[in-house]
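Expect chain and fold; thus:
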Amino acid sequence: MDTQTVIFRGLFSTLPSWLVRLSIIATLITLAVISVASLSPVSSAGDPGSWDKSMHFDKSMHVFAYLLAIIPLAAVPSRQRLKIALIALVWSGAIELLQPLVGRSASFSDLMANAVGIFVGLSITVLLRRILVQPPR
């Protein structure tokens, strides 16, 4: 049996329930931080031409933030993981709709970047789950 076979067999037969709960809490905390950051008014003192205001940086931050929110869900069974990811997507849409109330603008492209982050995060969780948990025989 080579090393690669052992790695992909999984570290645990099942994950402890405390780890599943902790991963859900980590995701909820990350989503709360994203919510606060997304609903905080922006200052107008920044230079509109600066690199941190560019479209690419903004969308990358959306992708990265939601990817980080979803990654802990690798410890969660797939059905729950998909439900939580769907809730995160709906929540990100709600944030976009609320942003005009705090002097920010709602953006469909931000919502799409959030969805990309969630999708990439889910893809990574599938790979992590294969490493963490042995498939049933």
The two ends are 17 Å apart (CA to CA). The CA atoms of residues 21 and 49 lie 43 Å apart. The helical segments are 3-9, 17-38, 55-70, 78-98, 108-132. Residues 1-8, 46-51 have pLDDT under 50 and may be disordered.
